[in-house]
Structure formats: structure tokens, C-alpha cells
## 1
Amino acid sequence: MKVKLMYLMILVALFAGGCVVKPEGPPVAPNFVFNPPTSAKSTKSNMSIAILMPGQKGSFFQESGSDANATIYNFLKSYQTDLEKVIVAKGFTTSGAYASYDEMTFSQKERSSLVMSPEISFNITVQRGIFGEDSRATVNGSIVIEFLEPMSREKVWIKHFNLPETTKTVNMILLTGPNGLLLKNPDGSLKYGLSPNSRISLLNSFYASAFAKIWDQLDAREISALKKDADKLKSRTNYRAN
């Protein structure tokens, strides 16, 4: 009797919230992988670029829950790996990724032509369907990449560009807390979130288009041209290694 009552309460809550929760299919595997175009031809450079771990901001990184945390961790780990692959494919050597600039030793800074400090901003917005309508989610974002002179930490160049927006139909689920109880919004309504499958499927699509844009924006000739400016800063007699 208690079990039936519990199911009845959940059904009432669902219809009261105006959202139909659809059953999940088989688990969707993350596919956060970018392989540089095989047709790309790069000229090898003697420049070494030290890469810092990516900073992050935006609503995507504010999601909570064990499944969301695991997805975020995998996303950032893959992003750092594939960003390094892009730089190598463009003809440069790399070192890192370093947790921060301050963790680099003096000799590591001295051997580097530039320090690359990337920051990613990703946001997910959800339009929840009501009374049988599909819910839709959109993910968008931007990239800011700073190139620093290694010894003085002065900025040589800042690259900022938006990433292609991705929208997909998603499945919503009722969120529960660590105690297993349904979570509520400040106004008392039940709290919904993206299902694990929907979140990963959305990000798989976004990741592919994002790295295609990153590949196009990071031009080897543009980066190589920064060496002159970095060398000028490095040759200053009053520089101080931070």
C-alpha cells in the first residue's frame, strides 16, 4: 500500500509540474575526443609552449551530483589533452600541463618560448517541455587563451572567440538529494535536471564542434609571430621571474 501511495505521489508531482519524465535508454558513453585533421600539414617550429591547466567558468561547471561531477572531470581532462594535441599538430613542442604558473620552476619557464593559459566558459540553458512537449537544452560558450612571456608573466597576446551553439532534445529527471528525497526550488516546486544520457549526448555534439572551431582559430603562423614580442620582453634587463 505504501509503495502504491509513493508512486501515486510521484505521478501527481509530475503532472503538477507539467513535465513528463521519459525512461532512459542504454547509457550514453562520453566521446570527448578530437583528432586533428589528417590532411593538416604543419611546419616544425623550435618554439616550446608551456600549457597551464584550463580555467573554467559558466553554468555547466556549477552543476552538482556525482554523475555531473564525473562528466565535468572527464570533459576538462579531455579538453586539456586535445588542446595539447592541437598545439603539437600545429608544429610546436609542449610541456605541462602545469596546475598553475606558480608551479613552474625557473628552468621550465626559461626553456619555454610562451606560456599558454586557456580558460573555457560553457553554459547550459534548458527549456523544459510541458504537457507532453519535448524539453530542449542549449549549450554555448567561449574560449579565452592568453599567451604569456614565461619569465616576466606579461601578456603577449589574448585570443578570444565564441564556440558554435548546440541545441538538442533532452530528457528531464527529478533531482534527489543525498538522502534520496526529491529536491525543491526556493518556491517549493520540484527541481528538474538533465538526465545523465541527455547531458553526455549534448556535450558529445558540442565538444566536436568546439574543437573544430579551436583548430581553425589557432593559426600556427599567428602563434609563431608572437616569438619576437616574447623575446623582446625576455631580453629586458629588469625582468623578474615570478
## 2
Amino acid sequence: MGVFLHVLLAGCSEYKVDSFQKWCELISGEDLKAKYAPFWVIHLSVTVDEDRIRNDYTFFLNRSFLKKAKYRVPRMAWRNGNELHIVNLSGLLKINPERMIDKWRHGIELALAKKHTNPIDICLYETLTRLFESLHIHTMKVDEEDRVVQDVVTVIPTALSGVKSPQQNASKP
């Protein structure tokens, strides 16, 4: 019995998905066993640490948006539990605020309908819809001394929130 159990356990291995990059590999359908399992593994067990992935995703967005904003503000993305908050780049890049909001809304709707074809979009938007309850987009106005004088927040629910998007509701008979 002991030899059988040893042989059985020797053929097993565990892979931990605990970063945004590893999560993207997982949801893209990449063959994780072929990529990460030792040659002797028969069964690869995959565990997912959603909280660490949420943190890493938020860090990635914050770093990316800060770069686009040329580091003029202290932060551009943060999370509050399972809510993701981002600052609308429109105020810093002099574009229509609705343009960015519409882009995120459309990306979320496509992710919910599984209609993204670009791997980067799949990774970006499906992470949001699978791991966060909502996206809060802060459209801020600042005065001459860069103090926030107005913060209008647009909340876009995701699949995790249980609230269906208009596109999901339309597909029901």
C-alpha cells in the first residue's frame, strides 16, 4: 500500500497561480502542464490565489496609468476589497472623459460575452470581470494647485457582482 501511495503522489504536482501574469496564462488556455510540470508529473494540480492576483493586477494598472500620466499624481489605481478604482486619464491627457468610461464599459461587456479575441484584451478585461465586483472610474477636476475640487465616480458592475449588464439581459429569452 505504501509503495502504491508513493508512486501515486510522485506523479502529482501543484502549480500556484498567484500573479497577474500567471493568471493571464491560465485564462488564455495555455497548457500549464506542458510549460511548468516536471517531466515525471502525471497530474498537475492548479491552485489560484485570487487576492494576490487582484493585488498584482491593481499594481500593474497603477504603474501603467502613472506612466501615461507622467507621474503627476500619487496613484491611479487602487482596490477596496473586490472593488477596483481607477482615475480617469481624461483630466490628465485632455480627452473627453466619456471616451475612457465607454472604452472600459465596452471592454467589460465583451469580456462578459466572451467576445474578446486579442489576448491582451482577454487578460485585461476578463481579470476584471472574474475577480472584481465593480470598476469605479474617478473623473476628477483639479484646481491650479492640483487639488481635487470634484470627483465624479462612474460605477460599472462586473459578473462577480451578480448584476447583469444590458447585453446579458438582452440575450435572455
## 3
Amino acid sequence: MSLIARVVAVGFLGLSATLFGGYFVGRQIPFLEAPISIEAASALADGGSMHVVLRDASNRRYAIGVEGSLSVRASDFGVYVQPWFSFLPVPIYIRKKSEEEGALLAAVEAWSTQLAGAQPGAELLTQIAGVLRGRGA
């Protein structure tokens, strides 16, 4: 095997290990320090899709969202997180009735109470908690 082929192979393995490890680390729900603010919030007119970007006291950002529509039962909505929203806005979907889903519900409910005053988008965070509860978290 030539030197170039070895370098490419090692680079590919390193990139694969980084992405694979990042996927599992990204599934962990972070501890966000109060006060928490809502940096951005949006809801689509499809009847179920929402996206909220949170920022904590340490200036960390964390995004959470729901994909749904009027033609899908709320219990079947997809829920995702984007732990590295500013660097790599790739969603990581949360399985229904999983341990992660229960942890995410607890975190969303805690974050809702730690918001820095009344903020636009706070109602979307409450709706996301409702979707998580409806999915059986």
C-alpha cells in the first residue's frame, strides 16, 4: 500500500471515528445554566413543526425541534436535537419512549422554568414538552 493510500485510509478512519463519537456524545442532554434565553424560535404553518434555539448563561447554544403536520398524529411527531447548531446543524432524532426522550422532557420542563423572564418563543418550548409527553416520554 502506498503512503498516500495509507494517509487517506487513516484520515478516513479518523473522520469516521470523530463523526461516530460525536453522534453519541451529541445524544446526551446538556445541563444549561440559568438564566436561559430563547435565541430563535419558529413554527411552520404545517401544524406541528417547531424549532427553538436556546442560549444559556455560559453562552452555549442548544437547539431542539419537532417535525409534524396536520396529517400526522401528534404522538408520531419526530423530535430532534441539534447540539452543535452553530457548527454543524445536523439533527439527531430521539426515539419514542426511550431513556433519552424522558431525559429530554425533564430538561425541557426545567429549561422552561429557568427562562429569563417572558420571552417570545416560550410557548413553543411548552408545546415541545407537550409533544414529548404525548409520545410517551
